[in-house]
Amino acid sequence: MTSAGGGGAVRGGFDRGGVERVDAERLAALPPMPADDDGPAFEAPWQAQAFALAVKLSEEGHFTWKEWAGTLADELAEAEARGEPDDGSRYYHHWVAALERLVVDRRLSTAAALDDRREAWADAYRHTPHGQPVELRRTD
Fold first, then answer.
1. pTM: predicted TM-score of the whole model, two decimal places
2. Higher pLDDT residue, 88 or 127?
3. What is the reported pLDDT for 19?
4. Strands 2-4 and 33-36
5. Domain interval for residue 18
6. Tally of domains in the chain
7. Quick count: other Cβ atoms within 10 Å of Cβ 98?
8. Distance between CA 127 and CA 57 in Å, rounded?
9. Is 115 a domain residue?
10. Is residue 56 part of a domain?
């Protein structure tokens, strides 16, 4: 696995719906992410989902890709300052922490709501029999 922060093959512009496509400059602003020859490397489905969620929220205008890259860079720098290992094993944990920070900053959710959902997930996980899918009930 190698690290890749961007690539020249990605083109910018707008699709027919007027949504800005990711361009090389926006990708280059992102700190290096785990990748292989085929693109971003995900060890678990949740990592791909977190990646897709950040892209989607940026596409919808909740934050710019530059803001996203800066927030992720801050999160990675804070982890380094705490003495966390820089071996790539926690990259997507930092990705999620940065995403949560932006979601709260942009008032898409609250820190309390995120904490409640995290606890609900942990509770559902603890009460799910081994080998069965975890069922997390929707809360409104």
1. 0.68
2. 127
3. 44
4. antiparallel
5. 2-109
6. 1
7. 23
8. 32
9. no
10. yes
Q: Which two tokens stand for residue 127?
A: 């009460």
- Tens-digit pLDDT profile for residues 85-116: 888 888 999 999 999 999 999 999 999 999 99
Q: In whole angstroms, give the CA distance from residue 5 to residue 27.
A: 6
Contacts of 1 (CB under 8 A, 6+ apart): 34, 35, 36, 41, 88
Is 116 inside any structural domain? Answer: no
Domain holding 81: CATH number?
1.10.472
With respect to residue 114, please indicate whether it lies within any of the assigned structural domains.
Answer: no
CA dihedral 19, 48, 98, 74 (to 10 degrees): -100
**Of residues 5 and 56, which shows the higher confidence score?**
56
